[in-house]
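queue> pop job 88
queue> type: inverse folding (structure -> sequence)
queue> payload:
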């Protein structure tokens, strides 16, 4: 079996992210303890790397995603990415062993990580089709219209606050889940259908960069099921929820 060194990650004071074989802090990237799997909303969800709790960081593992997306000042060198990719390939082979998906659907994102993962799946299984525009993010206006039909005594205050925010935002801009409270996320369906693949579809793989509350994957699952009610739907994420 291939041997690889990176296991955990370090985050420097300069926000540079690196892998480290001496510990398993923040994100476990070694192939020996990955993938992890869970069942969520009738989906079998596989995670390439595993986020873990940390006493010193509120958002465990997020610096890795921020660095890959070049957000909030976090960076990662091409050398460190190469170290991650070696483990990624081994774990992906484990996940896809004996499985073949007809279409692979990356979650809509301007950063492209989900699309890269989806293309890796096609490359590994030597077939299938990446459908990049199967789904689209709803606009602020569309989500606001959805919220007017939701009533919750328990979360009334949060719902009102989110409605007021969306009323001030540009209606036609894509909606973002990042500022939505954990309590409200299960109530929101941020995705909708954009394009339907015409061929017969038996197995679908949804791909996202990470899973937090699962609201995005749940929304994607519901959309795909309306189009292909008999299809088996699984999901793949680069990072797991924090354990």
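queue> result:
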């Amino acid at each position: 079996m291939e041997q690889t060194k990176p296991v955990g990650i370090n985050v420097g004071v300069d926000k540079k992210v690196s892998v480290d074989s001496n510990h398993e802090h923040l994100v476990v990237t070694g192939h020996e303890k990955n993938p992890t799997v869970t069942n969520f909303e009738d989906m079998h969800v596989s995670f390439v790397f595993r986020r873990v709790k940390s006493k010193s960081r509120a958002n465990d593992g997020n610096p890795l995603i921020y660095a890959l997306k070049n957000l909030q000042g976090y960076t990662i060198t091409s050398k460190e990415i190469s170290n991650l990719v070696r483990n990624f390939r081994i774990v992906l082979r484990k996940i896809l062993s004996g499985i073949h998906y007809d279409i692979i659907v990356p979650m809509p994102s301007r950063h492209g990580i989900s699309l890269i993962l989806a293309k890796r799946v096609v490359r590994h299984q030597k077939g299938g089709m990446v459908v990049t525009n199967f789904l689209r993010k709803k606009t602020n206006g569309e989500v606001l219209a959805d919220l007017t039909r939701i009533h919750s005594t328990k979360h009334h205050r949060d719902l009102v606050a989110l409605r007021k925010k969306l009323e001030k935002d540009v209606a036609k801009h894509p909606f973002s889940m990042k500022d939505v409270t954990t309590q409200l996320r299960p109530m929101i369906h941020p995705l909708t259908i954009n394009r339907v693949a015409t061929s017969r579809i038996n197995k679908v793989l949804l791909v996202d960069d990470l899973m937090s509350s699962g609201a995005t994957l749940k929304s994607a699952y519901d959309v795909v099921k309306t189009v292909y009610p008999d299809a088996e739907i699984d999901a793949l994420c680069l990072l797991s929820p924090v354990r």
